[in-house]
Amino acid sequence: IEVSGGMTLDRLNAFKGMGINTISVGALTHSARSVDISMNLLTDG
Fold it and tell me: Are the C-beta atoms of residues 7 and 25 closer than 8 Å to each other?
């Protein structure tokens, strides 16, 4: 059984002991900071 949708890290304990196998928490990726990376290529000619 998987629980997902609107899950936060604060709500994890509410599902303890319910037989849940997997909990998907979008906050792990939604709160990740982005990094601006660029690459400049030089060509001959």
Answer: yes
Please tell me the predicted confidence (pLDDT) of residue 39.
Answer: 95
Q: How far apart are CA 26 and CA 31, in angstroms?
A: 8
pLDDT tens for each residue of 10-31: 888 898 899 999 988 877 777 7
Name the token pair of 35.
């990094």
Give residues with Cβ within 8 angstroms of 34, minimum separation 6: none
> CA 20 from chain center: how many Å?
19
Q: Are 33 and 14 in contact (CB under 8 A)?
A: no
